[in-house]
């Protein structure tokens, strides 16, 4: 069975190439692919969504299309957690179906055999060893024979912290992403977004960002118990703590040092040349010292 087909909404893959730059289109206009762009997040053409009056969708894991090394209980726990993340922010309920064939959304593991992924998009791996690559999963659009097909050949794990395999792929991260597609979200250009189309082996990415929340709530509205302030409270507190730590770290430094830190912060934000602020500062300091020495030598001649 082919993992991807031309009728699928999107495919999630790990590749070894560098992702191309995404150019955002004007708000609510359609880009060349037909996807409706409203911000970093996008919708599928026509902005399809589930229209159940009771706002209830059922799901189930296939009893036959399984991954031999994963316990069924672990897979079911991953599905519960992944669906719950979306239910936290929209007024949609997700319930595990008693019968697989009766589920609105069917999840299973399948081999990707034909080497093709028509209409699929990629999720990128920056792994230098080149061994982490290939299609991870694909899914359907809303109301279209709901399914999530996971590429069985990858080293899937339901416990990334305990799994030491260098090429392990976190199942919950990928399933959470694919649920976004099943609900109607296309890919996002925001790197931190759940719907960003690139991920690495051994990366865990399960928390929805403001981009994901804005996108899905534009389709379904907000969960009546949802509050942006409460939902992102921990993120806000963490950011405040980072700012406080940075202030303590820079207190007492010279104007030159603080300027270097600020400059490097900007450089690192837009360039992958420096992996840390200290490496950037060191490099700039060395460059400045070099030109000072050259200027002194010129003045002496």
UniProtKB/TrEMBL annotation:
Residues reported in the UniProt entry to bind Zn(2+) 2: 177, 181, 187, 195
Cofactor notes: Binds 2 Zn(2+) ions per subunit. Can bind about 5 Ca(2+) ions per subunit.
A cellular component term, taken from the record's GO annotations: extracellular matrix
GO MF terms, alphabetically ordered: metalloendopeptidase activity; zinc ion binding
Record: residues binding Ca(2+) 3: 129-130
One Pfam family per UniProt: Peptidase_M10
Catalytic residue list: 178
UniProt GO BP: collagen catabolic process; extracellular matrix organization; proteolysis
Cofactor requirements of the protein: Zn(2+); Ca(2+)
Keywords attached to this entry: Calcium, Hydrolase, Metal-binding, Protease, Zinc
Residues annotated as domain Peptidase metallopeptidase: 46-222
InterPro entries reported in the protein's UniProt record: MetalloPept_cat_dom_sf, Pept_M10_metallopeptidase, Pept_M10A, Peptidase_Metallo
Residues at which Zn(2+) 1 binds: 124, 138, 149
Annotated residues for binding of Ca(2+) 2: 104
PANTHER family to which the protein is assigned, alphabetical: MATRIX METALLOPROTEINASE, METALLOENDOPROTEINASE 4-MMP
Protein name (database record): Peptidase metallopeptidase domain-containing protein
Species this protein is from: Oryza punctata
High-level lineage: Eukaryota, Viridiplantae, Streptophyta, Embryophyta, Tracheophyta
């Amino acid at each position: 069975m082919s993992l991807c087909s031309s009728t699928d909404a999107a495919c999630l893959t790990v590749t070894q190439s560098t992702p191309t730059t995404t150019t955002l289109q004007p708000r609510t206009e359609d880009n060349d692919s037909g996807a409706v762009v409203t911000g970093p997040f996008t919708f599928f053409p026509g902005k399809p969504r589930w229209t159940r009056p009771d706002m209830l969708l059922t799901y189930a894991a296939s009893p036959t299309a399984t991954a031999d090394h994963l316990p069924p209980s672990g897979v079911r726990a991953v599905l519960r957690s992944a669906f719950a993340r979306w239910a936290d922010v929209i007024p949609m309920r997700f319930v595990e179906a008693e019968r697989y064939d009766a589920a609105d959304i069917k999840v299973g593991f399948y081999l990707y055999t034909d080497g093709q992924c028509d209409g699929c998009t990629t999720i990128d791996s920056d792994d230098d060893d080149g061994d982490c690559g290939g299609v991870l999963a694909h899914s359907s659009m809303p109301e279209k024979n709901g399914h999530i097909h996971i590429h069985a050949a990858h080293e899937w794990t339901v416990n990334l912290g305990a799994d030491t395999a260098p090429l392990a792929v976190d199942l919950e991260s990928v399933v959470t992403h694919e649920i976004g597609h099943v609900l109607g979200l296309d890919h996002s250009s925001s790197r931190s977004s759940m719907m960003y189309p690139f991920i690495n082996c051994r990366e865990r990415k399960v928390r929805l960002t403001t981009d994901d929340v804005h996108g899905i709530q534009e389709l379904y509205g907000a969960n009546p118990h949802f509050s942006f302030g409460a939902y992102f409270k921990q993120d806000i507190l963490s950011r405040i703590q980072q700012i406080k730590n940075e202030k303590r770290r820079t207190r007492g430094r010279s104007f030159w040092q603080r300027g270097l830190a600020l400059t490097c912060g900007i450089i690192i934000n837009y360039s992958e040349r420096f992996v840390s602020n200290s490496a950037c500062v060191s490099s700039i300091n060395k460059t400045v010292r070099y030109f000072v020495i050259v200027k002194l030598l010129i003045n002496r001649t």
